[in-house]
Write a structure and sequence with these properties.
Elements (H helix, E strand, L loop, with lengths): L5 H4 L1 E2 L4 E2 L4 H10 L4 E5 L5 E6 H13 L19 E3 L4 H10 L5 E4 L5 E5 L1 H10 L5
Parallel strand pairs: 2-3, 5-6
Antiparallel strand pairs: 1-7, 3-4, 6-7
Amino acid sequence: MAVLTVESVMSPLQFTLKTEQTLEEAENFLREHKMGVAPLVSQRGHVVAVITEFRLLKCFLKRSQLSSDISLLGNYLTEFEGVTTIRNTENVVEGFKKMLQSPSYRVFVMDKDEKVVGCLEPLSLFEFARQRTPSP
């Protein structure tokens, strides 16, 4: 049986947030795209954090307690979840193992140039799992 790569089952990454965007832009982005999780990308295109709607809410609450209006996402990197990554050529089983260790159950897929190209998420693996489940 051929080894199935992460690239063959990943969801292509269509949406990202950038560190220079504001908290309000992030909120609107998540609402507009009906997403609860989004990668936060640096100006060089590297994933630096994972934004969840709950962590974003915490940033709004933290900002309300500050004396200055700090709005840029890049100022809140320590508030967001860490990033779990995998190379696009890796085995799907290794991707699943990493997914179990990720707080958001998302693993961001990197190409040979270290640019994010996709996301391995639970929905990505249903077909893979179904193929390995014996029929009743």
